[in-house]
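From the pipeline queue, job 12 of 40. The input is one protein chain; the requested action is below.

Action: predict structure.
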Amino acid sequence: MKTNHTELSARTFVDVHDIQEELDQVRWGLHTDGEESEAAQHAAAEARASVLNLVTVVSNEPELGEVTRVLDRLSVTNPSRTLILLAQHTREADKLEAEVSAQERTESGHRVSTERVILHAHGEPARHLASLAAPLLIPDLPVILWWPGRPQFDSPLFNDLCELADRLVVDTDEGFDDADLKRLLEVARREKARASIGDLNWARLMAWRHVAAQFFDMPNMLARLAHIRGVSIFHGSDGSTAQARLLGGWIRSRMATVGLEVPLEFRPDDSLEHGVHRFLIYTGGDEGSARFSMSRLRGGRLSTQIRLGDQELAERTVRLESRATEELLGIELTLPGHDVLFERALAAALQ
C-alpha cells in the first residue's frame, strides 16, 4: 500500500468564525489563490473521508505533543475531524488561539483528507471551550471525546464536553482509583445526556477475557462453571489496580447473570511488573476440583493450563499482543453504543 502525505493548510486564528471559514475551505478544497473547478470540488468532497468527530483535551504543551503523535498514527485508519483543546484555565490572561491544518494522503490510489484544529485557551475562554468547539464539529457524525489521563470530573469543561459527546474514551490505567471508577460509571448512567464509555484498559484485557471464555468451550467444561468456588488475580503492586479490578468485575458480572456469586482474591506482588499477571479460576462439584489458569509470560505470550484434580489436562501458549495507544483507541472508536459488558464489569468491580 502506497501512502503519500501532503500538508494542505496550516494557519493560526483567533476568531471562531474565521476557524469555521478556513475549515470549510479546507473541506471543499478552496484556497485563497483562486476558486477551484466544479470537478475539483467534487474530487475534494470524495477525498474527505472523516467518519467521526474526535475531541481531546490536554493541559500542557508536552501532553499536546504526545497526543498529536498518537493522532497522527490514528488518522491512517480512522480519519476524522479532530479538535485538540489545550485548556489552561489557571492562567490569568485571557487567550484564544487556533491552528487549522489538514493532511491529504493517497492510499492504494484513493485520496484521503483529514482535518485538525488545535484550540489553545487561557483564562475565561478555557472555561468555555465546549461552546467554542461545538460549531466546529461536522454535523451528523458521531462525537467521540478522548480524555487522556484522569478526567477532571467536577470541571464544567468535562461535563459540557460529555453533553456534546456520544462516547467518552478514557484509560483507567492512568491512576484511576475507586472514586474515579465510580464517577466514570455515573457518566454512563446519567438520566440525561448519557455518553457511552470506552476504556483503553478494558481493550487491553480483550485477550484475557477471550482465552478465559475458551476454557469453557471445551467438552464437559461448561458445567463446571456452575460450581465456581473463586477467582485469584495476581498483579503488580505499583499502586494501579484498575486492570485487575476490571478483570475481576468481568467474571463476577458474567456469573451474576446466572445467579452465581464469585469470591474474588486480589494478590499484589512486588516481584511482578505493572498490570495483571495471573488469572486463576477454581471450580468444585461432584466432578472434583479443577483449576483454570492463565499466566503472562515475557515476550508477549499468555500461558494457559487446565488442572483436573492432580492431572494436568491441557496446556498451551497464545500470543498476548501489546497494542499501542492508537490501536487501542481505534478499537474503542469503532464500538457502537453502550458497551454493556464493560459497564456491568465496572459496576461489579465497585462492589
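Job complete. The chain has two domains: 3-165, 204-319.
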